[in-house]
Backbone:
């Protein structure tokens, strides 16, 4: 961070301090510019944390004895989506993972094809943005292998995940979506998981596959993944912030 | 009417006396103004006071998303060591606070409180959280922005303290530790240092300020960072030191309430030992010192 941007950051800090009295009052609206001001530290947090962690620092892996008896399910537990339910009724025989966007070789992978690829098994701690943690054993295909097969173009910077679960009570509610940048996407522990604790991935955990990105909070780890798209940026996608929860005010960088 | 006015005057006089708002803080005895706090210390003190208030209130907002604490790496959901819950009884919603094996009815404040005119289940009440309504995303935005201000201010203070010699004024020595029991008794009796002795930090001040600034400050930052999965991958030692991610969250919470306890005692002591004199010395640096009475 240069001197000017540091000054700028501190100046904005001072401004935010001054506004506390206003914004703290209950019932007052929280204006968008204030939220944008507060969000301005996200990039600093991301850069500093990444400079410590680098691309390949690994999340701690645990032993079988550490696995939680019941792995807590959060968010969608059973998508109210007729197309999804039809695939589920057929044991996901017709399910295909579409991989396209800025790639040389678009893919359409069946569950069997994914399972036939080399797998990684990891016992990791899941950290929810709400504050709780749970340990489970995940088995899946490293996302890196899928991306290698699709050969991203040089302009591809982000990986979008489009899911089958509507974020509401009705099928026409917006479907979940998330994104990772390439640093997190090719991390050795980033996998498309199809098993939890030795069992086929259960419905409430995102069958047939969910993303695991072990250096991130839970909302990054999209469940019911249907479609992977490589993009240059996500400014034009839905709300433009790179994910369902991001478009509802959460940080894109979910490393903290 | 006369009687009401007389009562009001008495109450006002009592309040002024209670708040110790006399010029020197103690009396109208002869005094001189001593330059007690340097500019940078005063600026960082007030900046930090506001930043910590935001950190506390936004932290309570974040806590409310899952108002329970655990020990170890993970959450044993059925056995938290601390939890704020709401329970629906025949007479409405009750707030229940659980600390270890004990539970307390804390309806109205913890577990269940009023929001927009009706009782709802929420950990800490709306008046204590930032923002007021349940809004985890915005609570996090406040918390993480101000965490940078807290850290930067703390680092600048530490550098300044070492460079200026302020650190030596704060550092407790052996004789301070020996004097501590005596000093605690004196403070409990509300007998505060006067005259020349008031120009230096006493043993209790040194030990308290030192622990709050150089132990509690770094500890609250490190336990906060230990909740970050990315930082866990970069510094697994930190998770080990604090006994797991959930332990770290619990220690972070204890740190926050240690700050609250410090605020309360700090403000009470500042009021009792001379509100205006103390306040002025933290605003323009000048502290009134009573002249020692001549012997004989």
Residues:
């Amino acid at each position: 961070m240069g001197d000017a941007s540091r000054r700028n950051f501190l100046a904005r800090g001072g401004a935010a301090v001054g506004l506390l009295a206003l914004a703290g009052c209950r019932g007052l609206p929280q204006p968008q510019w204030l939220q944008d001001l507060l969000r301005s530290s996200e990039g600093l947090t991301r850069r500093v944390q990444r400079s410590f962690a680098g691309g390949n620092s690994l999340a701690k892996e645990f032993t079988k004895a550490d696995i939680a008896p019941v792995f807590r399910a959060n968010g969608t537990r059973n998508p109210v989506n007729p197309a999804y339910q039809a695939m589920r009724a057929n044991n996901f025989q017709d399910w295909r993972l579409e991989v396209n966007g800025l790639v040389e070789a678009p893919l359409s992978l069946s569950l069997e094809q994914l399972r036939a690829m080399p797998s990684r098994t990891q016992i990791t701690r899941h950290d929810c943005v709400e504050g709780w943690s749970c340990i489970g054993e995940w088995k899946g295909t490293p996302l890196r292998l899928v991306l290698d097969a699709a050969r991203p173009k040089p302009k591809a910077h982000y990986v979008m995940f489009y899911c089958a679960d509507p974020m509401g009570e009705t099928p026409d509610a917006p479907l979940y979506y998330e994104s990772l940048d390439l640093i997190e996407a090719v991390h050795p522990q980033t996998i498309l998981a199809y098993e939890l604790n030795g069992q086929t991935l259960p419905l409430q955990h995102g069958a047939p596959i969910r993303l695991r990105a072990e250096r991130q909070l839970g909302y990054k780890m999209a469940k019911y993944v249907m479609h992977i798209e490589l993009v240059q940026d996500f400014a034009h996608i839905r709300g433009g912030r790179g994910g369902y929860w991001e478009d509802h005010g959460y940080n894109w960088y979910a490393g903290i | 009417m006369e009687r009401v006015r007389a009562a009001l005057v008495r109450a006002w006089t009592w309040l002024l006396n209670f708040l110790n708002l006399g010029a020197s803080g103690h009396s109208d005895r002869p005094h001189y103004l001593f330059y007690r706090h340097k500019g940078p210390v005063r600026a960082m003190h007030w900046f930090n006071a506001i930043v910590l208030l935001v950190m506390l209130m936004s932290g309570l907002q974040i806590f409310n998303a899952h108002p329970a604490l655990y020990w170890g790496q993970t959450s044993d959901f059925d056995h938290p060591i601390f939890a704020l819950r709401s329970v629906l009884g025949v007479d409405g919603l009750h707030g229940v606070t659980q600390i270890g094996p004990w539970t307390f009815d804390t309806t109205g404040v913890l577990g269940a409180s009023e929001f927009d005119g009706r009782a709802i289940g929420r950990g800490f009440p709306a008046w204590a959280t930032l923002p007021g309504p349940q809004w985890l995303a915005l609570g996090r935005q406040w918390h993480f922005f101000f965490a940078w201000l807290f850290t930067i201010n703390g680092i600048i203070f530490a550098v300044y303290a070492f460079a200026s010699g302020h650190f030596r004024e704060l550092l407790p020595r052996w004789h301070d530790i020996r004097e501590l029991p005596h000093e605690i008794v004196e403070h409990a009796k509300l007998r505060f240092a006067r005259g020349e002795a008031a120009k230096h930090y006493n043993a209790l001040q040194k030990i308290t300020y030192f622990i709050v600034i150089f132990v509690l400050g770094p500890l609250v930052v490190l336990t906060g960072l230990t909740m970050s999965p990315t930082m866990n991958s970069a510094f697994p030692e930190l998770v080990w030191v604090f006994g797991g991610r959930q332990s770290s969250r619990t220690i972070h919470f204890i740190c926050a309430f240690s700050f609250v306890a410090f605020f309360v005692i700090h403000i009470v002591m500042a009021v009792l030992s001379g509100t205006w004199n103390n306040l002025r010395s933290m605003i323009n640096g000048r502290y009134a010192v009573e002249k020692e009475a001549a012997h004989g």
Summary: The longest strand of chain B covers residues 82-89.
